[in-house]
Amino acid sequence: MQLHDVWFVLIAFLWVGYFFLEGFDFGIGVLTKLLARDRRERRVLINTIGPVWDGNEVWLLSAAGGTFAAFPDWYATLFSGFYLPVLLILVCLILRGVAFEYRVKRPEERWQRNWEHTIFWTSLLPAVLWGVIFGNIVHGVKINAHKEYVGGLLDLFHPYALLGGLVTLVLFTFHGAVFASLKTVGDIRERARRTATAVGLIAAVLVTGFLGWTQADKGDGASLVVLVVAVAALVAALAATRLGREGWAFVFSGVTIVAAVAMLFLTLFPNVMPSTLNESWSLTVGNASSSPYTLKIMTWGAGFAAPLVMLYQGWTYWVFRKRIGTQHLAADAH
Amino acid sequence: MELALAPETLARWQFGITTVYHFLFVPLTISLAALVAGLETAWVRTAKQKYLKATKFWGKLFLINIAMGVVTGIVQEFQFGMNWSDYSRFVGDVFGAPLAFEALIAFFFESTFIGLWIFGWDKLPKKIHCFCMWMVSIGTILSAYFILAANSWMQHPVGYKYNAGTGRAELTDFWKVLTQDTTMVVAFHTLTAAFLTGGAFMVGIAAFHLMRKKHIKVMRTSLRLGLVTLVIAGVLTAISGDSLGKVMFRQQPMKMAAAEALWDKEEPAPFSVFAYGDVEKGHNDVAIEIPGLLSFLAHSDFSSPVPGINDVNKSEQQKFGPGDYRPNIPVAYWGFRWMIGFGMSSFAIGLAGLWLTRKKFWLSPGLRTGDEEPPRLALTKNKVLGARLSKAYWSLAFVTLGFPLIANSWGWIFTEMGRQPWVVYGVLRTSDAVSPGVSQAEVLTSMIVFTTLYAILAVVEVKLLVKYIKAGPQELSDDDLNPPTRIGGDSADADRPMAFSY
């Protein structure tokens, strides 16, 4: 295993971490309209991720920065090629961060409602778009001999990618509903479980369909194993939800995301962005990576930083382990 | 049309707009994190309520500010790939590493511990709560350091070699990138300027309240902290700026010649106070100068020669081939002056304030003021400023909070535009760095989207800041004064409301 293979795994790890963590953040955002009955319940949902969403989002910045350092050509082709979808994601993430922080800073009804709409849409859109983007990465896009994306915007919206977008949206919403049932008390907790069951069933169909399609197109023995793990975990998450075992349900919905993303990366390897124009023009771990010296330094840095990050982020979840309900909302809106 | 809207021009405008905007928030975030952490430490150690009130008040302004800093920072992580894909391919091997470390080490620190701080008032013992803000502060400083190391490499590329096989720059010595003199001096200058910004911010807002005789106890403390920060940071900013100038005279003589509109070599070289000239012909029509000062700024003596724009242009043409190697000279010249002018005005106002509001030194006992009354502005031992002059000083102290923001922006515009036509000095031209596959329409779209969005958010942010500044520090509750002793909170009441919720 060469260093650029190690870095392929590390980049996959960062994306897996991002989708696991911000997956339920996005899901919570979507559920503010799907699950919450009034403003107080919306506030409860938002506060389940209040202390952690910002740290979760840094996984994305690390994935992007890590890709820049370890695979400059991948970084360049990906973000210049998927220009407008990436722009839309950035706009969403900007508004979403501000919405969380500023919503409570004014008591006016209209102010708070506007930011709540913002939270919903800026959670839903990236949840879809990441699926579309990853659908395209795995499927392959029009890349020329100079590693440039030469397709148009509409080329990115083919059935496989659109199904990918639907899968991430529904799967994240399921993950979010399970998280909500784990983090809340009272009436909303019961309804979160029911929502999780309903959304989970749809997710099971969609995930099986999407991963099955991926398997049929690009799969091998190893990816089949991971596919089975993903689907089995999703079924287990549903069963645990039915049994009221919310902790286990969350573990399994998490495993579903981990396995599904891992399977996509597994079918991608050793490419990082396959070309549909000519196989030899594909970006691979070999032709898109940095020099061994840079990768070595990055390996030391990541080897030191990543475990530390997981340690103190894990500690944060432990500090805020208590469930919250409408009775726990702070009285003053400041 | 073609030239004005060339992808390179658009991409540069977009980078300029998004980055200058982002950097309005960065210095305040860096300095306020440390100042708030300092105030909270004072509360933990002395248990004086005014420190907790100040912590909460400045903490709130800090949070409104950092929210914008964080979200506008997200764009920075992606736009190299979006608009500058050829740049990313060429430099990723070198430039990517500090960027990745910034995310992995610094951003995680900031974002995780800020969450703990915001929501942790009733979950963490006060020492640990305070520790979280120090971690945020360390995160902001590390973040600045890594990104400045990356930028310094663009100003003065070291620790790399050009690989003709891969057609890109490849890292050979990461340590050199992290510790070269450009990185060190730029980090020193940027961080001290950040504290000048935070000091001025604190002074301005404290002055606003003291002028109205409101929230006196908290604002006296804040004024003092702000003034001391402003003055110390001001001195250090000047010192570090001088060192940076000397480094730049050596590494990018063109930038410094442009900063002075010095067209031809002079020995000794004068410092230009005002110049108006003709860029095409390459000379000044009007010039007011201080003899010898530029030689001193460049080489620490009053007689050394300093090469002019025309000389450097010729030598670069010999080195790199035919072309125009001059940056936009009016922007460099005036940017350099706005930076120094606004930065040092702020420092001067701070220095005056430190003297006028002194507590005891050379001040007759009758003029000393207690904790509960606003400080009298005492010029000499027995003489205080009259009502009108006092008001003038407080107003001046208030508006100075905006000066460093202007200085910071011009400093960056100067140093980045002064490096043109290079994106990596002497190695890669800006025109060779843009994304070849991204269309004019796409860049124009994103530029319009970001500019509009940022403008709207600026209005929202400023209005919120004004609201919370005007409201002043809040009264403390019993819960505020009795923080938990155990992690996770020690309340037996399962239904107790959170100390803070979104």
Outline:
The complex is a heterodimer of chains A (334) and B (502). With 334 residues, chain A is mainly alpha-helical.
Written description of the protein model:
The complex is a heterodimer of chains A (334) and B (502). Chain A has helices spanning 3-34, 39-48, 53-70, 72-81, 83-102, 109-139, 159-183, 187-218, 221-242, 246-268, 292-319; strands at 271-273, 283-284. Chain A is an all-alpha fold and 334 residues long. Chain A has one domain (3-293): Formate dehydrogenase/DMSO reductase fold (Up-down Bundle), CATH 1.20.1630. A two-stranded antiparallel sheet of chain A has the order 1-2. In chain A, helix 1 (3-34) crosses helix 7 (159-183) and helix 7 (159-183) runs antiparallel to helix 8. Chain A is globular and about 60 Å long. The N and C termini of chain A lie far apart (53 Å). The mean pLDDT of chain A is 96. Chain B has 502 residues and is mainly α. Chain B has two domains: 7-249 and 332-481, no CATH class; 253-326, no CATH class. Chain B contains 15 helices and six strands. Chain B has helices at residues 7-46, 49-83, 85-119, 126-155, 174-179, 181-211, 216-251, 253-259, 293-299, 309-320, 329-356, 387-399, 403-417, 440-471, 478-481, and strands at 160-163, 168-171, 271-278, 283-290, 422-424, 428-429. In chain B, the strands form three sheets. In chain B, strands 1-2 form a two-stranded antiparallel ribbon. A two-stranded antiparallel sheet of chain B has the order 3-4. The mean pLDDT of chain B is 95. The chains are: A mainly alpha (334), B mainly alpha (502). Chains A and B meet through helix 2, helix 3, helix 4, helix 5 and helix 11 of A and helix 2, helix 3, strand 2 and helix 14 of B.
